[in-house]
Amino acid sequence: MFTSSQFIKKREKPVLTKEDIPYKAGLIFNAGVAKFNGKYVMIFRNDVPDVWGERVFSPGSTNLGFATSDDGINWTSAKAPCLTLDDYRDKFGINDRVTKFYDPRLTVIDGIVYMCFAIDTAHGVCGGVATTEDFEHFDIKYVSVPENRNMVIFPGKIGGNFVRLERPMPVYSRGRDRFDTWMSFSPDLKYWGNTKFVFGVEDVPFANDKVGPGAPPILTEKGWLTTFHAVWRDETRGKHGWEPKWTKIYTAGIMLLDKDEPWKILGMSKEPLIAPELPYEKDEGFRTDVIFPGGMLLDGDEVKIYYGAADTVEAVCTADVNDLISLCI
Asked: Is 56 exposed, middle or buried (0-12, 13-18, 19+ CB in 10 A)?
């Protein structure tokens, strides 16, 4: 139904799967990726199964894993998760109402790694922000009220403030999961406000269900270049994965934001940047037809975009930064 941009170059195989992890692993996807101290670093989501078999998956728990790479393609996983739910509770005094944390996004500012992540609780879904300098010790700075997630922090302050893109989930007022993208500002990571609307589902021709942030933006001479996720719902779709029914198609879009007033969109591609096409994106996995961008790095003119595929594996594609800007303007 959707196709990727002609400028995107994909790899035949994912860059990280459960077979690459030296401890119990299941679905390896939706990772945050950054460059830190001369290396590529990744924190990935690991959904650990209670039951695993052909087209059978019963989720047991979720933890966050850590991996490093010299080239951004070949990754080595740490020997154990960098953060588990028990760690989270023990280190930060979180009670048992937190049931899962997942979907990390990484931003580096002045030698500190800022990690956004989602939190499932007995009272709704929240977004969190933590910092680390060694990927072993994490300091949680902020947890939002429900319902909000998919937060990403810009890799630099604007007007003296941290800036984040986010996707609130106002089911009650909208009557269904028709979610849009917003932006908030903070002087210290703890207090967020001056919130502004950025764009909605109606602004994206390849979305009819929800839109939200993808990877943290990169700064170009034209402005902030950033990906977003877009969801198309088709109730006529059948199984498409291991669940009884999976009605959604996830694609990634690209847009350009103003350097000084980043809530202003300078341009947006009206077609998907990355769409599910390869077998590990479209035909294999827990939920097929899913692309979810979580990391975007600029090396010279080459952009590496890391994304979860089929909620099962982590993949990467590349493009020229000038081509991506041209899609927006």
From this structure: exposed
Residue 209 contacts residue 167 (beta carbons within 8 Å): no
User: pLDDT tens digit string along 262-283?
Assistant: 999 999 999 999 999 999 999 9
Nearest to 164 by CA among 174, 155, 175: 155
Kindly report whether the peptide bond that precedes residue 202 is cis, defined as omega within 30 degrees of 0.
no
CB-CB contact of 319 with 328 (8 Å) = no
- Separation of alpha carbons 179 and 148, rounded Å: 10
Look up residue 260 and give its DSSP letter: S
pLDDT digits (tens, 9 = 90+) for 84-121: 888 776 655 566 677 888 999 999 999 999 999 998 88
Q: How far apart are CA 155 and CA 163, in angstroms?
A: 9
- ∠ CA 133-137-139, nearest 5°, is 85
Statement: the pTM of the whole predicted model exceeds 0.85: yes
Q: Which residues contact 22 (CB under 8 A, 6 or more apart)?
A: 77, 79
